[in-house]
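ok so for the tutorial part 2 we go from a plain amino acid sequence to predicted structure tokens. step 1 is just haveing the sequence, like this:
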Amino acid sequence: MLKSDLINILVSKRGITQKQAEATVETIFESMKDALCRGENIEIRGLGAFHVKHYDGYQGRNPKTGQVIPVKPKRGLLFRTGKELRDRVNRANPTTARADGSSTDEDAA
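step 2 — the prediction. this is what the tokens look like for a chain of 109 residues:
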């Protein structure tokens, strides 16, 4: 799904104009980006949570030369799905194939 798909859904389900839908989606995403840049976590019930993880700086090595290289502290972004969404996704398609190529459907022989 693309951002344009979200906008089209808002237009069709809520009966608002295209510009209003675009502004709404942009406002939501910009607010989320700003909060994450400030280091705040975002939790959306039924969907999941975005967490900002802080990584300390450390001394790395160039594997080719063995030279010590300082690595600066940084922040990363993690997303954890909520239980409700995880259960819904797993329930939606019970006959998905496993990584080893076998099917999870026991009726398939």
